[in-house]
TrEMBL record, chain A:
Family, as annotated: Belongs to the cytochrome b560 family.
Membrane-spanning segments: 30-50, 71-88, 108-129
NCBIfam families reported in the protein's UniProt record: succ_dehyd_cytB (TIGR02970)
Keyword annotations from UniProtKB, A to Z: Heme, Iron, Membrane, Metal-binding, Transmembrane, Transmembrane helix
Cofactor: heme
Subcellular location per the Swiss-Prot or TrEMBL entry: Membrane
Name this protein carries in UniProt: Succinate dehydrogenase, cytochrome b556 subunit
InterPro entries linked to this entry: SdhC_prok, SQR/QFR_C/D, Succ_DH_cytb556, SuccDH_FuR_B_TM-su
TrEMBL record, chain B:
TM regions (residue ranges): 21-41, 61-79, 100-121
Keyword Iron attached: yes
Protein name: Succinate dehydrogenase
Cross-referenced Pfam families: Sdh_cyt (PF01127)
Keywords, sorted A to Z: Heme, Iron, Membrane, Metal-binding, Transmembrane, Transmembrane helix
UniProt key word Transmembrane helix: yes
Compartments where located: Membrane
InterPro entries: SQR/QFR_C/D, SuccDH_FuR_B_TM-su
Coiled-coil spans in chain: none
UniProtKB/TrEMBL annotation, chain C:
NCBIfam families: dhsB
InterPro entries, per database record: 2Fe-2S_ferredoxin-like_sf, 2Fe-2S_ferredoxin-type, 4Fe4S_Fe-S-bd, 4Fe4S_Fe_S_CS, Beta-grasp_dom_sf, Helical_ferredxn, SDH/FRD_Iron-Sulfur, Succ_DH/fum_Rdtase_Fe-S
Keyword Cell cycle (UniProt): no
Catalytic activity: a menaquinone + succinate = a menaquinol + fumarate
Species whose genome carries this gene: Thermanaerothrix solaris
Residue ranges constituting the 2Fe-2S ferredoxin-type domain according to the UniProt record: 6-97
Entries under Pfam families matching the protein: Fer2_3, Fer4_8
EC number, UniProt record: 1.3.5.1
Positions in coiled-coil regions: none
Record note on cofactor: Binds 1 [3Fe-4S] cluster.
Domain annotation 4Fe-4S ferredoxin-type: ranges: 148-176
Enzyme class: oxidoreductase
Listed name of the protein: Fumarate reductase iron-sulfur subunit
Amino acid sequence: MENPEKKPNTRGIWDWFDPRGRKVGGWGFILNRLSAIGLTVYLYLHLVMLGKLAQGPEAYDSFIAFAKQPLILFGEILVIIGGLYHGLNGIRIALNSFGVGVNAQKQLLYGVLTLTIVGSLIFGLRMIAAH
Amino acid sequence: MQNTISQPKAGESYLLWFIKIVSGLLIVVILFIHFLVNHYLAPEGLLSHAEVVAYYRNYPIVPIMEGFFLVFVVSHSLIGTRSILLDLNPKKAVMRIIDALLVLIGLVATGYGIWLLFAVINWGA
Amino acid sequence: MSEEKWTVNFVVYRKKGEGEPHYQTFTLEVSPDEYVIDGVERIWAFHDRSLVFAHACHHSTCGACGMRVNGVEKLTCITRIRDVTTNGGTLRIEPLRNFPVISDLVVDMSRLYVGMDKVHAPAVHPLSMAPLEGEGIKPPREVPMDDGKEYLRLADCIECGLCISACPIAGTAEEYLGPAVLAAAQLQGLNRAPDLTAIVDCVDGVWRCHSAYECTAVCPSNVDPGWRIMDLRRQVLAQRIRRWFGAA
C-alpha cells in the first residue's frame, strides 16, 4: 500500500492562512504570520525611505509632505495595528515557551487582542487628529 | 513525501530561536522608547530634516539607541523570515543560498543604517 | 438513544488511485445521537461497498477513525451527529490532512509511526518488552492526573493523527516531527532520554511549532500536545543553558 513518493494531502501555504475550522490559537497564529510578513516588508521600505535623510532637507521634507496622503496614513495605521499585535503576541509566545501560562494561552490571546484594539484606537485616532 | 525520518537536520536550533525571542523583547522595549522620544518628546514629531539633525546632535543617546534598535529589528526580521522559509521544507542546497542571502541583507541593512545615522549627525558639518 | 430521526447529507470525499478527488453525497436518515462513524459505516453497508475508511474499536481507543468532519479533525466514533450538524444539514467527511491519501478516507500515517519509533514510543512493542518479561516497557516520565488526583484516562496518545492534520505547518514542513511525536518525546523527558535532545532541537523539531495550539484543540485523548511542545522547549533550553555553564 505504502507509496513513499505520494504527496501529502495539503493545500500548502494556503493552509497557513485558512481560518475555517480553526480555534482561537489558530487565529492567533494566522494574525502573527500576517503581521510578521507585513512588518518585514514595512521595515525594509522604511529603511529605504529614511535614505531621504541623507539626501538633504528638500528630499526629506518633500517626502514627509508626500507621506501625508490618506493612503499612506492608512498604511501607517496598519503598521501600528500589526506592530502592537505582533509585539504583544510575541510576549505571549515567549512566556508560553518558557512554560508560563500555556494553559491560559486563549485568555492571554484575548488580552493581546484587547490591548491591540485599545492601543490601535488611541494611536490611530491621535494620528488622524494630527493629520 | 519522505516516510523515513533522516538524522536530526541541523540548521535551526535553540540558539537562533533564543536570539529571535530576546531581540523581539528588546524591540518591544526600544520601540516604546522610540515612539515616546521621536513622536511625543520631540517638539514637532521629527517631521523636518532640520529637526532630525538637531535632535540627533543634541541627544547622542538617540542615534545610539536607534543603532541598537536597527540591529535587533534586522536580526529579528531575518531570523523570522528564515523560520517561515524553513516551514516550506526547502532542500539543503536551497537553504544554503537563502542563508547567504539573508546574511548579506542583514549586513547591508545594518551597514546602510549606521551610515545613515552618521550622515544625519554630520549633515552640513 | 432517542427515537428522534434526522435527515443528513453526508458529502464524502472520494479518491481512487491516480484519479481526481471528488465529493459524493449520500442522504441518510439517522438518529442525532448516533456517531459520525455509524453514518459512514451505513454508507459502506447499504450504498457503496467501494467506500474505503478505517475503523476498529468504536470507543476512542484504537485511533483509526480520524477524519475531518465539516473541516475539523474528529475521532468519528465519539463525535455525535447532533454535535456537528442539524436536521436537514450537511456533514462534509474528508480524510485527514498532511498525510498522503491511500483511498477515499484512508491516509498513510507512516510519517507519524516513524516519528514515534524515533522518540522511543513505538506504536507496537515487541513481546520481549512486555511488562512480564525483563524490564518491561518504561512508563512515561509523568502520568498526568486530574484535579482529584485520579490518573487521566487516555492521557497517552492513541496515534490517531488528528494533531498532525490540524497543524497548519505540518502540510508544508513535510519532515516536521509534529505534535504527537514531540509530545511523546516530552513524556520520555530529556533528562531520562538525553539522546532525544538532538532529535527535537533541530529544524524538524520543536522550533517548527508556531504555537497555533490546533493540536491541543483537536486531541481526543487529553495529551495536550501544545502544552507538551512548550514544555519540551523549556527542557531543551534548560539543558542547553546548563551546558553553557559547564554542567553535563
